[in-house]
């Protein structure tokens, strides 16, 4: 019987996430792996049905009869997915996971009989190079090999398989208490296939790995479940060999269904650095924080003028952007893009995020050695002559450079952190200190004079603009102005009035001044909504902050996962998935709501109104 999906095309939130901390897969609610890149996050996909059709590659295991009910969960605080599929005659459980990486990546699927005897069908469609390349398939040794170009996969199972229309198919029964394993392993096509994996042992090892990791979490607060699931997701988005964390496991999931705002997020953004360090440090994961810091230092090493906003997982700099014309796009949202041209943009704010993350790492006991401090001083030397230049800003606009207010604030933060590293932490930069203080104060005065629009009664998107931008919510969070400053309060009120849709926050209104140079619109931006909850806490609106945070938690799917945006009208998630920035913001906001300002600033930090030497 031909399989039919329970609800038609899967929504973004209908997917689950698997990872071996070097690459990731997304699995639909009905048992189809629709996206998988081997051997690393930014490799070409061998299953690309997520952005096309089944013909672009997927791995489906499902009952032959109509599925009447599907439920799923992660096993405890792990990334082991359990999907229960029920039919009129019985039920089966799919146990999907990716074992901690050895030499070669594996994805393991165990089909377990729960009730009755269920006829099953397996359809494996391998298409390398993002769904474009049909492999040569042959039985060899103890498995079925698929080879094309540099890539090879081997499927190992006791179930008999055969070919149908360029698809590997198996039909089998699963009775109550029985387990049928399938193991798919990637290897380089010029090498021999790796040895067989014991699926049951791999399951035990994977469960122990995640339980040991989550057992180290020091968070014991009110929202522990949400925080831990977010931390597990962030760990899953980590490229373990280098410590880099990708923004998401996918590319080109749209910010507007049918629109063109589709980007490749399988890279490491420097902008995430501060939030990442905070999330790991405050949760007791100093090893992960240290690895991320070391990745950061390696990636930005070299000439400060060549520092990029993002890098590949090993620190590669060249991320050319191109389109995959053979993929129809998620729900016809084209183009499908690989690479990211924003890697070549000048974004001033990343200097603030880098300096702030290194400052927080140092305060957490990850000592700044002399080479690292020399690199930071070189960055500041570059920033001295570039902070007043227009840039593309935090939202990576493609409509031309402007003097974005948020960018200037983060340039202020860079100098502020540099001063703190000298005055509080004792690092040597006496020949720079006076100049850093002078520039810090100059930026502060300029932002207050040119970034605040008295007519709008708010800090606006860029100097001279009437448009609002939710990135301005970072002003009180980083300590640029105290939360009770009248300009901060009026800016929060303006954002609540003009940028909120159904209680959540837009980044900005794209069509108001066409600042991003793109057609169409987008959903509410989840990190900005978390930032508003943080700001509400800081200004004393405790109940409003908690209510917004709880509503945001309610947007997570049944597995606790968030994408980048949310469509409040269609009631569905938008953008790449799962999104690190959203989960980082969740962790940060959760800590602030429970512990207040000290959670992100530390005991030595204070805020002094109208002082240009604020400690944050």
Concise overview:
With 616 residues, the chain is α+β, with helices and mostly antiparallel strands. Helix content is 32%, strand content 22%. Helix 4 (273-282) crosses helix 15 (580-595).
How does this structure look, described?
- The protein is an alpha+beta fold and 616 residues long.
- The chain has 2 domains: 181 residues, Beta-galactosidase, Chain A, domain 5 (Distorted Sandwich), CATH 2.70.98; 388 residues, Glycosyltransferase (Alpha/alpha barrel), CATH 1.50.10.10.
- Strand 1 and strand 2 form a beta hairpin.
- Helix 5 packs across helix 6, helix 8 packs antiparallel against helix 9 and helix 13 packs antiparallel against helix 14.
- The longest helix has 22 residues.
| Number of DSSP E strands | 28
Helix content: 25-40%
Shape type: globular
Number of helices: 16
State which percent range the strand residues make up: 15-25%
Radius of gyration: 25 Å
Distance between the termini: 63 Å
Assign the structural class, choosing from mainly alpha, mainly beta, alpha/beta, alpha+beta, or little secondary structure: alpha+beta
What key phrases describe this protein's structure?
alpha+beta; 616 residues; disordered N terminus; Beta-galactosidase, Chain A, domain 5; single chain; 16 helices; three-stranded antiparallel beta sheet; 15-stranded antiparallel beta sheet; 2 domains; Glycosyltransferase; 32% helix; disordered C terminus
């Amino acid at each position: 019987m031909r399989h039919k999906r329970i609800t038609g095309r899967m929504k973004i939130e209908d997917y689950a996430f698997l990872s071996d901390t070097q690459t990731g897969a997304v699995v639909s609610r009905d048992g189809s792996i629709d996206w998988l890149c081997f051997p690393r996050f930014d490799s070409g996909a061998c299953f690309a049905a997520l952005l096309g059709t089944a013909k672009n590659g997927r791995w489906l295991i499902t009952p032959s009869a109509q599925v009447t009910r599907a439920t799923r969960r992660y096993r405890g605080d792990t990334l082991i997915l359990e999907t229960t599929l029920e039919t009129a005659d019985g039920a089966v459980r799919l146990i999907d996971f990716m074992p901690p990486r050895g030499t070669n990546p594996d994805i393991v699927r165990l089909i377990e009989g729960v009730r009755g005897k269920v006829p099953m069908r397996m359809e494996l469609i391998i298409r390398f190079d993002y769904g474009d390349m049909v492999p040569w398939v042959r039985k060899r040794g103890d498995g079925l090999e698929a080879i094309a170009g540099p890539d090879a996969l081997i499927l190992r199972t006791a179930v008999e398989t055969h070919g149908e229309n360029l698809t590997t198919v198996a039909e089998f029964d699963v009775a109550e208490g029985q387990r049928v394993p399938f193991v798919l392993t990637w290897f380089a096509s010029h090498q021999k296939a790796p040895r067989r994996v014991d699926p049951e042992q791999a399951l035990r090892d994977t469960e122990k790995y995640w339980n040991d990791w989550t057992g180290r979490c020091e968070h014991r607060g009110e929202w522990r479940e949400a925080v831990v699931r977010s931390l597990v997701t962030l760990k899953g988005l980590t490229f373990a060999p280098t410590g880099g964390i990708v923004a998401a496991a996918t590319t080109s999931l749209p910010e507007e269904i049918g629109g063109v705002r589709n980007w490749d997020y399988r890279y490491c953004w420097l902008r995430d650095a501060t939030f990442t360090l905070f999330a790991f440090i405050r949760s007791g994961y100093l090893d992960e924080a240290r690895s991320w810091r070391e990745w950061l230092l390696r990636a930005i090493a070299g000439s400060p003028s060549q520092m990029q906003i993002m890098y590949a997982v090993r620190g590669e700099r060249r991320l050319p952007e191109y389109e995959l014309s053979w993929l129809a796009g998620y729900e016809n949202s084209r183009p499908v893009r690989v690479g990211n041209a924003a890697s070549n943009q000048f974004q001033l704010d990343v200097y603030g995020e880098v300096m702030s993350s290194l400052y927080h790492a140092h305060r957490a006991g990850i000592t700044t050695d002399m080479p690292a401090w020399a690199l930071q001083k070189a960055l500041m030397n570059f920033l001295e002559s570039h902070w007043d230049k227009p840039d593309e800003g935090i939202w990576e606009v493609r409509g031309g450079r402007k003097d974005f207010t948020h960018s200037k604030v983060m340039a202020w933060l860079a100098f502020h952190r540099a001063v703190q590293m000298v005055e509080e932490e004792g690092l040597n930069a006496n020949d720079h200190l006076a100049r850093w203080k002078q520039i810090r104060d100059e930026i502060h005065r300029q932002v207050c004079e040119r970034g605040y629009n008295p007519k709008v009664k708010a800090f606006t998107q860029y100097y001279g603009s009437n448009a609002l931008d939710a990135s301005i919510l970072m002003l009180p969070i980083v300590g640029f102005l105290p939360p009770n400053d009248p300009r901060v309060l009026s800016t929060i009120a303006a954002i609540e009035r003009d940028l909120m849709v159904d209680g959540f926050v837009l980044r900005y209104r794209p069509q108001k001044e066409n600042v991003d140079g793109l057609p169409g619109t987008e959903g509410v931006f989840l990190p900005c909504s978390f930032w508003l909850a943080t700001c509400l806490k800081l200004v004393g609106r405790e109940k409003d902050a908690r209510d917004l945070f709880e509503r945001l938690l309610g947007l997570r799917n049944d597995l606790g996962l968030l994408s980048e945006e949310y469509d409040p009208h269609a009631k569905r998630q938008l953008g790449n998935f799962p999104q690190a920035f959203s989960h980082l913001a969740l962790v940060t906001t959760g800590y602030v709501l429970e512990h207040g300002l000290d959670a992100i600033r530390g005991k030595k930090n204070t805020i002094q109104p109208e002082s240009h030497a604020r400690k944050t």
